[in-house]
Write a sequence for this structure.
């Protein structure tokens, strides 16, 4: 039975891999998207000891693991490719950092710099949420002369786009992240106006990983069938 449990755990891991791969492929064309990868850990680690004579403590000779399970799903923040759009409201971050966004009374962070101007003249993203300056205020745009320098400063003003790095990062949804803000230096990033950062998904690699995950699933499924057949034979033999 132990073999069946281990193989079943492996099949569940393959399902988790396929879920992440499918989500990555679905977002291959999403601006600023960061791919997910899975972290697995051993489950039910047991210490094996050898006992000799009257030794009550024994000697550790190794560990045994019952199975491997999914521990967490982590985003990969490798830089995505930058593409020029020549749209003055498109922005990409080359290097570290995130744009700071306000939705209602909450702050979120994104690498998606495909912005626009709402009917009040404020810089917003595709969701209609405010893009914030370094003082956490919405940015009122002068459409006649809107030029942003490499450090995020808006030319002719004392306003700068709020670019921060994050610790303990978690994906929130809508291409947003949450986390604890970390200050950046100018050497850490460059704001490029008229550019967008594509997703960091390599479609070919994800397809290869999908094939591998499917093969693992099939092999483990066959292992379960074989183990089940052997168990049935053992039960049949023991009944005589």
């Amino acid at each position: 039975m132990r073999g069946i449990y281990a193989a079943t755990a492996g099949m569940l891991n393959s399902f988790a891999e396929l879920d992440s791969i499918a989500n990555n492929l679905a977002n291959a064309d999403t601006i600023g998207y960061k791919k997910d990868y899975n972290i697995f850990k051993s489950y039910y680690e047991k210490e094996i000891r050898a006992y000799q004579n009257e030794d009550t403590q024994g000697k550790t000779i190794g560990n045994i693991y019952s199975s491997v399970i999914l521990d967490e799903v982590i985003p990969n923040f490798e830089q995505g490719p930058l593409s020029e759009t020549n749209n003055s409201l498109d922005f990409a971050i080359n290097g570290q950092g995130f744009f700071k966004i306000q939705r209602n009374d909450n702050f979120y962070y994104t690498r998606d710099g495909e912005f626009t101007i709402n009917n009040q003249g404020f810089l917003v993203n595709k969701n209609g949420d405010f893009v914030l300056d370094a003082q956490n205020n919405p940015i009122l745009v002068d459409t006649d002369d809107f030029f942003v320098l490499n450090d995020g400063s808006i030319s002719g003003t004392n306003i700068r786009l709020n670019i921060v790095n994050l610790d303990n990062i978690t994906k929130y949804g809508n291409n947003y992240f949450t986390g604890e803000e970390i200050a950046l230096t100018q050497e850490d990033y460059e704001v490029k106006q008229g550019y967008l950062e594509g997703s960091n998904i390599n479609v070919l690699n994800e397809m290869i990983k999908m094939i591998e995950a499917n093969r693992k699933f099939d092999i483990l499924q066959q292992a379960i069938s074989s183990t089940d057949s052997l168990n049935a034979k053992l039960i049949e033999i023991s009944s005589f």
